[in-house]
Amino acid sequence: MQSFTPEHMATMVAAHQALQEKNNRISDYDAGIDAKLKDALGLQWHFASEEQIHEILSPCQQDWRMLRYFYETLSNDGDFFRRVSMIYNHPEAFRAIGAFKTLEAAEALREYYGQQRALGTPDEQEAYWEQTREQRKPIERQADSVLELADLLISFAEANPDELTSIPASDPFEHLTEHLAAMKQHIIDARSHTG
Questions:
Q1: At what angle do helices 59-77 and 146-159 cross, to 10 degrees?
Q2: pLDDT above 70 (res 171)
Q3: Closest by Cα among 72, 81, 73, 67 to 139
Q4: pLDDT-derived band of residue 61, with 50, 70 and 90 as boundaries?
Q5: 129 alpha carbon, distance to own chain's centre
């Protein structure tokens, strides 16, 4: 087992705390979007379809949600290549936040992506993902880091205050009874529509 020096541990703790602070700020912008959806749909907003969400949110807010999902999944598993299609499908959103290193890395991976997509089965695609992992690593490392993406998201939100409102995130258990009642009503409504 590797041991770390006290200085290295202090650096790791400081980096973790900095990331947590950034994540809290990002969550406050998520809460602003959630509040807009809740205002429009009431407690049923948790069950909104993508169509409903697109009708309510502006293009900027829709981009935020997609970028936020990209950021969250990348933070959780670090697998850039599995998310590269999001970049290909929404390059303007990544440009808007200034994630140019991410765009460049995605472009450099385009041949790998095309070859993987050309394979017939999910098992073949997964095998290709594993076989090319080491070759892709240097390219993937060129993308914006999670910390850089967090800063880009926060800067983007701050530059668009009319579109992205920061609301301190509430305790998820604060309105638990209301959420459970809404869920129960959603189930009842769904059953009444199906017979």
A1: 160
A2: no
A3: 81
A4: very high
A5: 21
